[in-house]
């Protein structure tokens, strides 16, 4: 789960990171009093859960409250990569004499938390990791011990030879690590971490992604989710406990299992068409899940045919068949359905679907080909 | 031989009185797996319909049954504790079917089990099957066939699809292993390859990868440097858009890394043929054997 | 380092353990208002850092404030195993329907924290561990993970089948573990942990020892040390950074290294006499340390001869010799000194001591024998 | 052969610019130990009087020198970090001379180093010496002599005393190892016995134990069950009163366990002769060889 910069700043501040004060606003005129309160200059920052807002004009400096209102007016309502700016952050501005990058992820190789730092701030870390890996220092942290003093020393000296700055960096690294672990973060970035001309270190941007699987133990963080930043279908899918990703093609897919769902998309492409979505109904799927899946796909007006591809294991084919029949009846589907059901209770399912206008297929290949044929018809 | 499980496997089902645990315990018994017991705290003393004794905790279960393997069907938030408990009780192999575990839980699970010599498969794994010998997981047993091809996969149903084509084409399997779709797992692609490398009954290995992470690239490297078995591969997610999680917590392309293209290219460089569709794997393997 | 029960209760309470309220008093008349404040009945408990105060009459129940004063008067000033009671704890009394033992140490075998519990409270755990080990459940805790849910379940069901009590035990175990770790405890005991007739769990006694080596990071705990509970020589030794244990014999010992110091004591006994003390001047010993050591030994009027046994390594023999000469001069020692110096700068030391009335010995055996001979003379 | 250190030992001195570190670095160089570098944060780039290069951190030191062993002379409160750093840098053997480490520090050090394959000796160890080959520690080199007797001890100067008698009586040592007087140490009596058991150059082992803990009893058990080397023992602390810490943090009799009597009895039961005075060890060993 992604959260807004403003909320990420709040979390960082709570863990003791040096974050300049800021406030969310949703109406431009609120920018005046907030700028007054924080003290100018301020930065006006679009709150959208997508990268590249700076280049899109979503971040502007304001030297007085009046300008803050103007800038907020310009940014609110702006469209950035398909997302509408509905919230803006007003943050006290900091003069910058030096910028660093500091970020954390879980390293899949060592299966341990990994801190990455660079003496160049504001970068795209993954791009730099490819193009100039020597500019990045990666430090694997052992959760047994947490970040160790020898590691913070090494990191600080990688970034600076200024002892006053180095002294402030140790606590920054430690707080970031602590925040990352305690909130079950999957990504936590300060980009950039800056040094102001008076030698003080500030975290002037904040990005935090949270491990979705951990949200049950972070009620407070779950409340920060902003559904307006996602495709409506994806929000609906999450509520129905389905995995769904919207794509641009014409063949809707309902599949059990993420790997098989990707393979189905890939096969649609392989046979010359484009999938309209990724959709995994998960393991022990009930008829209700199939119904929800169908509803979500039907939102998409590009869909010309729907392919149901099930390899029953935990998932029982008859449950899926029941869901399909229910959906047919309740949703009045007029888009052709191609159905391939194999595995647990396959016979029962075939019996249920006999005599309906659903197109049946014996193999995945056949199902994909038939769906494309129908969509292109 | 096979890897991980065989006729000597003595299995405890953790969460045996739950819906999934109960159903699959029966399925495993029916397949011929030696299910020696189950554990559900507070339900010790009962027996399942199949006559499997239920214990209150793993220590008791292991002491009473001499179990060496466990499979976990408890809800995600209790799964880490179930793994700790199994490892503490001396279980050698824990297969974690449970999905939805926070990554942080695995970060403490892994050093703990390593210290105690326990191997973990998963979480979010469909399990392990050594056809004709033992099945520990949720895969449909009847699509498998005894043979000499090892299958290792990050996926569940996609594996069934591929195994089904193998079996239909007369190609049996030594062991099929689903390592799980999470980013942090107990046994990864490379660990599984090591196991197959040392199994005299495995002549070829099918690697079923997907987007996210770099294990497939590392696997390709190992093969290039000289891997003792023939290998065929399939990579799911060629059409997956970047930055989006494709069902599995670990299936995501970030910052241009973990793409299907990179993985396919790495395999091609290592001389491994990558199937374009699941059905093609059977043909490639036939050609290799 | 040992701390008083009252202070241990305070620490336990801060970690969330259910500890009945209590107050220290040093004058009997304070017992009245305190008993009034806490509510009667109260327990009046001698605060001495030694076991067995209950049997010695140092713990008494008082049903009203007047009785509390009487009991406090009786206990204050009491001598318990050579220690004078100068402080008393007044604690709210709890009715007991069941008693458990819960304690923690670091297990030397597994090199991990170990929790020990027994369904019999008020016991001497080490004695029960020998006589009836089946009455104790030992649970090794991994510091990687802390106490795990499956472990607390197992422990709770070892102690009770009452679900309401079991539910209260989990947090007790967790808090005890957390306290044990965070304060660098070497022993932490709740003995007994009781269940009151209304089914509530209470920690009615508390014992905490702290790892001396950790005190630099626990200023607050260090301040709890009560020097009046120790031999004056031992307090002085600690301040001089020496290891000293007072014994009852007549041969004083000054040795470098704990093992050699013990072996020296053992050899004195082996040759038929009794050592007056254990004293290790440590590694890189300066002349000042030798001087302090000498002062401490001279407090003991039983000492008839002093044996200095040094095997130089880091310790330089000439430093020791200088210290001895300095002590001779400044302290006017009239007790015979037998000196055995071997190792680093042995020649220089011999040179320094030439012509003094110090008795020199070439080997440890010879040194011990000469010291005994002189003491018996 | 010897155990732990020999002519292939490439040593880094952690805390080399400190008083003790500097002094003993020189002593070790003089003994012939291959001291390849030292580390003190912030002092990288300088050289010691003996020409030993100083580095800012262990990673750099190991990369530059190919060191495989380190010895730690930093103050107690920085010692755990020094061990972590050495292990992280790939050092195989860390000898921690530093004393006064909180036990809790060792509780996190030990699983960390185990995972990385580093062996720790100490803390509060006098070090290790393989006479004539390498000395890593603070013991006086000249009292030792090459030979076939292994010495393992919880003590420092007491070991010198005993080794001195061995040498004077013409009995040389393969390796003398001080495991340290703390209750929680990286390598205990039993670990050391394992190492000597596998050393073809060691024909007999001297165990120097003391009150506290039960390792001596466990050692006796191992000997009784068949230990491949001759053993003689000494136990310090027969006259130590219960409940009092005798200098070493680990030397304490609590609740009647850890007494010298128990240990001596255990050895007697295992047929191991226990010397009554340090000087007697030489005679016992002479009889055994």
Give the helices and strands, then pairings:
The complex is a heterotetramer, with 2 copies of chain A (377 residues) and 2 copies of chain B (289 residues).
Chain A: H1 5-14, E1 22-25, H2 31-38, E2 42-46, E3 59-62, H3 65-75, E4 79-80, E5 83-84, E6 88-92, E7 98-107, E8 112-118, H4 125-131, E9 136-140, H5 149-159, H6 163-182, E10 185-195, E11 201-203, E12 207-210, H7 219-222, H8 232-239, E13 243-246, E14 251-255, H9 258-270, E15 277-280, H10 287-298, E16 305-312, H11 317-331, E17 337-343, H12 346-353, E18 359-360, H13 364-376
Chain B: E1 11-14, H1 19-31, E2 35-39, E3 54-55, H2 58-65, E4 69-72, H3 76-88, E5 93-96, H4 103-115, E6 119-121, E7 127-130, E8 134-137, E9 146-153, H5 157-168, E10 173-178, H6 189-197, E11 204-210, H7 215-224, E12 230-236, H8 260-269, E13 273-275, H9 280-288
Parallel strand pairs in B: 1-2, 1-4, 2-3, 4-5, 5-6, 9-10, 9-11, 11-12, 12-13
Antiparallel strand pairs in B: 7-8, 7-10
Helix pairs in contact in B: 3-4, 5-9, 7-8
Question: What tags apply to this protein structure?
Answer:
heterotetramer; A: 377 residues; alpha+beta; Dna Ligase, domain 1; D-amino Acid Aminotransferase, Chain A, domain 1; Rossmann fold; 3 domains; 6-stranded antiparallel beta sheet; 4-stranded antiparallel beta sheet; 18 strands; elongated; B: 289 residues; alpha/beta; 2 domains; 7-stranded mixed beta sheet; 6-stranded parallel beta sheet; 9 helices; globular
């Amino acid at each position: 789960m992604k959260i807004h910069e403003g909320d990420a700043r709040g979390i960082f501040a709570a863990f003791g990171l040096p974050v300049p004060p800021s406030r969310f606003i949703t109406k431009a005129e609120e920018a005046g009093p907030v700028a007054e309160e924080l003290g100018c200059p301020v930065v006006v920052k679009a709150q959208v859960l997508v990268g590249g807002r700076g280049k899109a004009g979503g971040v502007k400096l304001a030297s007085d409250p009046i300008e803050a209102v103007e800038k907020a007016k310009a940014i609110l309502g702006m469209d950035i990569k398909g997302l509408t700016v509905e919230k803006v952050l007003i943050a006290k501005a900091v003069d910058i004499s030096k910028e660093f990058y500091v970020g954390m992820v879980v390293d899949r190789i060592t299966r341990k938390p990994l801190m990455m730092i660079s003496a160049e701030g504001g970068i795209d870390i993954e791009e730099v990791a490819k193009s100039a890996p020597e500019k990045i220092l990666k430090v694997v942290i052992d959760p047994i011990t947490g970040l160790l003093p020898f590691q913070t020393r090494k990191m600080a000296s990688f970034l600076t030879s200024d002892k006053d700055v180095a002294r402030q960096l140790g606590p920054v690294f430690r707080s970031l690590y602590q925040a990352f672990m305690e909130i079950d973060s999957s990504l936590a970035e300060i980009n950039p971490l800056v040094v102001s001309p008076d030698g003080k270190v500030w975290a002037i941007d904040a990005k935090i992604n949270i491990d979705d699987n951990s949200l049950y133990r972070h009620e407070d963080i779950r409340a920060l989710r902003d559904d307006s930043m996602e495709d409506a279908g994806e929000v609906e899918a999450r509520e129905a406990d389905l995995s769904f990703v919207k794509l641009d093609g014409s063949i809707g897919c309902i599949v059990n299992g993420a790997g098989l769902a990707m393979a189905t998309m890939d096969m649609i492409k392989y046979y010359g068409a484009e999938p309209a979505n990724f959709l995994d109904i998960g393991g022990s799927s009930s008829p209700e899940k199939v119904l929800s899946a169908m509803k979500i796909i039907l939102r998409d007006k590009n869909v010309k045919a729907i392919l149901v591809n099930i390899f029953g294991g935990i998932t029982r084919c008859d449950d899926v068949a029941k869901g399909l029949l229910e959906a047919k009846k309740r949703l009045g589907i007029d888009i052709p359905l191609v159905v391939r059901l194999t595995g647990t209770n396959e016979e029962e399912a075939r019996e249920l679907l006999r005599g309906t206008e659903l197109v049946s297929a014996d193999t995945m290949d056949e199902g994909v080909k038939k769906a494309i044929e129908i969509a292109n018809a | 031989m096979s890897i991980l499980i065989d006729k000597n496997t003595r299995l405890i089902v953790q969460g045996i009185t739950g819906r999934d645990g109960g159903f699959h315990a029966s399925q495993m018994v029916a397949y011929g797996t030696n299910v020696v017991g189950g554990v559900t705290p507070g339900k010790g003393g009962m027996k399942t319909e199949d006559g499997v004794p239920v214990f209150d905790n793993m220590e008791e279960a292991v002491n009473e049954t001499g179990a060496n393997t466990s499979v976990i069907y408890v809800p995600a938030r209790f799964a880490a504790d179930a793994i700790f408990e199994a490892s503490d009780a001396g279980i050698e192999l824990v297969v974690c079917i449970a999905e939805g575990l926070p990554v942080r839980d695995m970060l403490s699970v892994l050093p703990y089990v390593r210290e105690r010599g326990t191997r973990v498969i998963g979480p979010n794994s469909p399990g392990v099957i050594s056809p004709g010998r033992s099945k520990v997981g949720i895969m449909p047993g009847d699509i498998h066939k005894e043979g000499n091809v090892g299958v290792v996969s990050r996926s569940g149903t996609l594996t069934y699809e591929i195994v089904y084509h193998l079996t239909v084409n007369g190609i049996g399997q030594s062991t099929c292993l689903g390592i799980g779709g999470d980013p942090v797992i107990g046994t990864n692609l490379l660990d599984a390859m090591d196991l197959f490398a040392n199994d005299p009954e495995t002549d070829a290995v099918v690697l079923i990868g997907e987007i996210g992470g770099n294990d497939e690239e590392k696997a390709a490297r190992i093969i290039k440097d000289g891997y003792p078995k023939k290998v065929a591969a399939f990579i799911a997610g060629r059409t997956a858009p970047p930055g989006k999680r494709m069902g599995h917590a670990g299936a995501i392309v970030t910052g241009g890394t973990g793409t299907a293209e990179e993985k396919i290219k790495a395999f091609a460089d290592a001389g491994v043929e990558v199937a374009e569709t699941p059905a093609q794997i059977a043909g490639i393997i036939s050609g290799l054997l």
